[in-house]
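Subject: two folds for Thursday's group meeting

Dear M.,

Sorry for the delay on this. The cluster queue was jammed most of the week, so I only got both jobs back this morning. I'm pasting them in the order they finished. Each block is the input sequence followed by the predicted structure tokens. Could you check whether the formatting survives your parser before we put anything on slides? The first protein is the one we discussed after the seminar.
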Amino acid sequence: MILLNISYGQFSRSQSVDIDEPHTYTPPRHYFQTSSFDEADQDDDDAAKNPLDRGPYFDISASRNVTALVGNTAYLNCRVRNLGNRTVSWIRHRDLHLLTVGKATYTSDQRYQSVHNPQLDDWSLKVLYPQQRDSGVYECQISTTPPVGYSMMLSVVEPITTIIGGPDLYIDTGSTVNLTCIVRHLPEPPPLIQWTHNEQEINYDSPRGGVSVITEKGDITTSYLLIQRARSTDSGKYTCLPSTANPMTVHVHVLNGEHPAAIQGSKGLGSSAVVVTFALLLLVLLATVRAFPVR
């Protein structure tokens, strides 16, 4: 890992520090000792008894992996104990770009901000309106000599909503319509999934009856819209609307003895008529040219 030492606004390369391995003493649970010291001058037993005397260290109780939704503010939380007069910075690994130093933003991209909570010793990197290109490794770094850091992975995801079998479904009259809406890539299940029919919210207690919805929430959320004893009035556009993801639409065709190919053929009738008209005009033009040749 390449670590950056910040001095008067300039960068200088420093030695690599493997933050995944503790130093020679055993830190308390959830804490990680990262400050630099001369091991020859220290006794391991004393270090184990007095870890707070060894300089700043990271609290690693929180997860290193953060998932955020496209457009929703993301927070990378870095908890530093015993910071003293040291400074906390945030660095983006893919280009070694310095983002923040203390509470100040050191990049022209003002979407990156430092948020300090002194009660919890937190130095969070706030990312406004994150996009998928912002995914990657970010490092919280303490200005020790050499500097030490704690890396975190930000994954910015865009939820995907799909309806199985779409965009057109053909159902026989009297059959059960089963519309299955699947929502993926959400950090947490959507609080609500709404279904509409021809832009109108579906009333599951309507006199029509036989209409119900079942939603299973998890890493992948699935919502089933069930319509029993399908009739012609059940045809139309159905839309699945997760509260925290994009909507998806499917067109349901309830058949009364028709063949799906016939319906698809009628849909293409307009475009076919245009082709036929163009062909007729072309024939008339050719006939005119032949009748009156250019001399």
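Second protein, same layout:
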Amino acid sequence: MAQEQSTSTTTTVPDLNSPPFSRLFVLCGKQVTVGALEKFFSPYGTVEQCHIVYDQSTGQSKGIGFVKFQKTSQAARALKEADGKHIEPELKPIKVEIASSTIESKPLDCLRLKVKCAAELDADAVKAEFGKISAVNSVQLVPDKKSPGNNVAYLTFESFLDAALAFETAKPEHKAKFAKIKPRKVSLESVQPQEARSFFRPVTRRRSSTLLPPTKLTVLCSSTLTQNQIWRLFDIIPGLMNCSISHDGGSISSATVTYNNTQSAKYAREKLHKFEYPIGERIVVRDGSE
């Protein structure tokens, strides 16, 4: 089992859940130290704590780090700008993700806010108010059951940074908080093209499965990886519907990853094929039909 060793920049241990999504998971390299990790991420904001994960049996770094920021927007900016760069003395690009504090939390949850608003404000007015600071994709209004006469607005933003800035600058009366995006159960045979551009036209089961655009991927990976780790890696690409992994007792495991559209599956294959996860061990990503 791997253990986390750390150096904190403060005398107290920060609450990893406060503010939400302020902690990052970093695939770096085995030569990266806590000091190097902190120095690299400090320009993006106040770093409250850094961790490097070490193997308990060997004492060697696993090439995995965690960085906790003081503000959500600082973590969002670091995620946007630091991903793909490298930390000396390593030359390989790093991979940065949101470090979910709970298994139920998914990366896309950071794109949606729940805010309270007056009933006289329609969706356009709410969008205009928050659009002064951030790029808002959509607004959904529902009656506030706890406060009759008011509404609750669910805002989906263009990016994590947009949502973070809106969260931090919202008026106190809005009581803004991040809202989980509930996974939509989709049957590929029942979805119509007009419902979402990302879905392909359904076909009947009588037609050859080779006519379906590939949405299912097969992933060969280290047997040390868990299903949750594979889920978190592939969930950085929107559209993930399902992930299952099977262990046969050997050093290599096989996972099946399914997206709700062919574009996401293709992008995942292009970006994550031969990606080192964990560092030093490459995963193989291919179409499920191969």
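Two things I noticed about the second structure. The chain is about 20% helix and 30% strand. Residues 112-178 form a domain with the Alpha-Beta Plaits fold (CATH 3.30.70.330).

Cheers,
T.
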